[in-house]
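Please check both lines for our workbook:

___
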Amino acid sequence: MSRIFIIDDDISFGMMLQTWLRKQGYEVEVSSSVKTAEGILRRQSFNLIISDLRLPDGDGIMLLSWLRERKITTPFFVMTGYADVQSAVLAMKLGAMDYLQKPIIPDILKTKVETALKQKPAEESKDEKSENRSFVKGNSETIRRVYSHISLVAPTKMSVLLLGESGTGKEYLARMIHEQSNRKDKPFVAVDCGSLSKELAPSELFGHLKGSFTTAIADKKGVFTEASGGTVFLDEIGNLSYEVQKQLLRALQEQKVRPVGSVNDISIDVRIVAATNEDLNKAIAEGRFRQDLYHRINEFSIIVPPLRERVEDIPNFVECFIAEANEELGKSINSIDKEALSTLQQQQWNGNLRELRNVIRRAVLFAENDTITVESLPVFQTAASNTADDDLALRPGDEENQIKKALYIAHGNKTIAARLLQIDRKTLYNKMHALGMI
């Protein structure tokens, strides 16, 4: 039976598509974020991947790039509610097989799925070197202190909490901790806690038995069982619901999990590395995060510096991202001129390494010669570095135009756009859904 993987943050739409495809005779799994999808794709293989373009922590193109970096050539469809020609072109350049616009027409989707599944899949490779090759270690004093702390704590059994803004490379550092530990030969499993609803989290974390709920068509191992002997990376742990925090604390304290629908506990042996861009002490004071869980995961904390505090590392990252984009896009950019590099070093980079990578990818795509110039870069605006811009603070009225303006200034980065609008990312997504923008 062919296996299809759907990634869409509209959970009801994803479930509807899952139900329809199952009726066509396919085995279907659904995810709602880039990071959760990456975790699943590290552990499972599929015959077809169908991803929404706009996702809470990135986009379908980002996921496609991640796959191609790892030589995973599974047929890939991108879905979008936007008539975005540039994104379509970029997706096709990166190797997407097709580009679908919502609302999806079942007959057309059926034909395209059948065509994709008839193709002979290319050999896939998931070796660790490929997985980490696009990240360059920095040489700034601030990041060297981070590496020193990692070397100190990695060989121990201590739980580690990584504190830093979104896009600073916390998952890479978590993997570095794992690789320098005694567990390096066991699995490293990453979980995007922001995508775990109160209803689905127990199944994702602890597993379930077949028939334990409507869509449980087979037994499923949870993250903690899959990572046995290794490391579990709980990204954005501050986004977990309070009820799920309670269940997680029990699992960590007792080193046991109970799959949904089971009456038996399973012993686990995992090391926890957690990360957040939220002030957990504030969340504790507001009753949104359990203090006992905080102390359990915070045996050792590391503050990950934002890119604007390590400007001297930008040239190294730019060189790395250019090489990465050349391979992705079939280009041969050799360098970046001084003016363009200086422009990059003067930016605030609220989206950090993730934002810089996206800017370089687009610059490589649009560069006319073999050198990135200022003309190849997006038009940076000073408002993008000011998270308290009164002109952009979201107020009742013409919210759609305000959101569009913020997304334009932020070059599509929703984390930055939310900051410009002085709201959180979840609120931005809810408003965009309500306005029919995604």
Summary: The longest strand covers residues 271-276. Confidence is low (pLDDT under 50) at residues 121-134, 381-390. The chain is about 45% helix and 15% strand.
